[in-house]
């Protein structure tokens, strides 16, 4: 046992110097971050309301950009340049979905997300971006509701997609009545964030509770979308839903640099019928192993009736174990890329 921490620490030293060696954080930002709106006045105004179309990639990303900048002050005590803001995980995930073609129309009945003029279109048929809606619109509107965005709750409205309009909510009062639990948990996160004595672990706890409520309130409503995907991609989506629970239990800190590194393991394009991990052509060994192990973890979870998750949760109660897992994940990524 003593042997493992020994070589692990050498790698930690190596990892931290490689991060210090890359001081310009803008290289870690998601695609088109600079081009996305960064303040409310960048959006259209009608009847005194800001009108935001979350079905356009840059507009949706702009919601995150405003959210990140409005919460920066609460993370300033942890690191400069907002690097430790735990909300970075959300825009980086959307960025990965966009980059990998997962925000496009999986049915291919429209050009949404494909042709150059529709490149920025986000499809309401995309399982990924439907779920992301509840990890974007809800945290965003809840932040407005919590008073940290500098505008009043009735000053902003989101536009509906061309279909399935009844599955989403579009303003603070609408989301409060259709998704009260999500709005409540995100609100609790912001209230804690605002307290001067906030500590990082506790922030993560509130974040993951809120994140989980967004997933619990939305995953069940979009299972019909699995049908639009190849079997490997649909399996990957289902595994993703399971694996998130393990990530939550480990209180994974979705900060900027860490999440950027973590994303190296995610599949760079939508999986095809012929893709069999770990032999997917064009994927790095890490990406192949990630697809394989995510599916493996889901099988383990299903075959043990989630006893494996319960065990994991117990293990993750101690800070030392959480740190070790994080460390091993980073070493693994470093070795496999
Ligand atoms: C970081 O890089 C971007 C372009 O990639 C540039 O606009 C910005 O000024 C750089 N920031 C610093 C602090 O060097
Ligand atoms: C909020 O959206 C709902 C529909 O989701 C609508 O009925 C309501 O009028 C909207 N409220 C405001 C203040 O815009």
TrEMBL record:
Signal peptide: 1-21
Cited InterPro entries: Leg1
Localization per Swiss-Prot or TrEMBL: Secreted
One Pfam family from the record: Leg1
Keyword annotations: Glycoprotein, Secreted, Signal
GO cellular component: extracellular space
PANTHER family: LEG1, PROTEIN LEG1 HOMOLOG
Protein family membership: Belongs to the LEG1 family.
Protein name, entry field: Protein LEG1 homolog
Gene that specifies this protein: LOC105993541
């Amino acid at each position: 046992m003593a042997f493992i921490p020994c070589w692990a620490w050498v790698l930690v030293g190596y990892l931290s110097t490689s991060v210090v060696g890359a001081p310009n954080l803008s290289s870690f930002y998601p695609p088109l971050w600079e081009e996305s709106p960064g303040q409310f006045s960048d959006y259209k105004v009608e009847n005194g309301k800001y009108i935001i179309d979350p079905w356009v990639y840059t507009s949706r990303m702009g919601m995150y950009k405003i959210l990140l900048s409005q919460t920066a002050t609460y993370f300033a005590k942890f690191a400069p340049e907002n690097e430790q803001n735990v909300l970075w995980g959300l825009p980086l995930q959307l960025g990965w979905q966009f980059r990998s073609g997962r925000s496009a129309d999986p049915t291919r009945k429209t050009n949404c997300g494909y042709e150059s003029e529709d490149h920025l279109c986000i499809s309401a048929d995309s399982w990924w971006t439907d779920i992301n809606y509840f990890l974007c619109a809800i945290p965003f509107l809840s932040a407005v509701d919590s008073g940290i965005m500098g505008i009043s709750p009735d000053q902003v409205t989101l536009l509906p997609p061309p279909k399935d309009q009844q599955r989403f909510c579009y303003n603070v009062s609408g989301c409060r009545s259709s998704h009260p639990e999500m709005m409540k948990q995100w609100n609790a996160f912001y209230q804690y964030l605002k307290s001067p004595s906030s500590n990082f672990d506790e922030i993560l706890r509130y974040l993951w509770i809120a994140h989980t409520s967004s997933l619990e309130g939305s995953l069940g409503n979009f299972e019909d979308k699995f049908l639009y995907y190849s079997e490997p991609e649909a399996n990957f989506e289902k595994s993703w839903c399971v694996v998130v629970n393990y990530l939550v239990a480990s209180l994974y800190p979705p900060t900027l640099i860490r999440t950027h590194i973590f994303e190296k393991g995610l599949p760079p394009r939508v999986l095809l019928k012929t893709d069999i991990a770990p032999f997917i052509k064009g994927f790095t060994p890490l990406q192949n192993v990630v697809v394989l192990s995510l599916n493996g973890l889901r099988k383990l979870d299903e075959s043990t009736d989630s006893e494996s998750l319960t065990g994991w949760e117990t293990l993750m109660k101690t800070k030392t174990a959480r740190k070790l897992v994080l460390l091993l994940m980073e070493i693994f990524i470093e070795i496999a890329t």
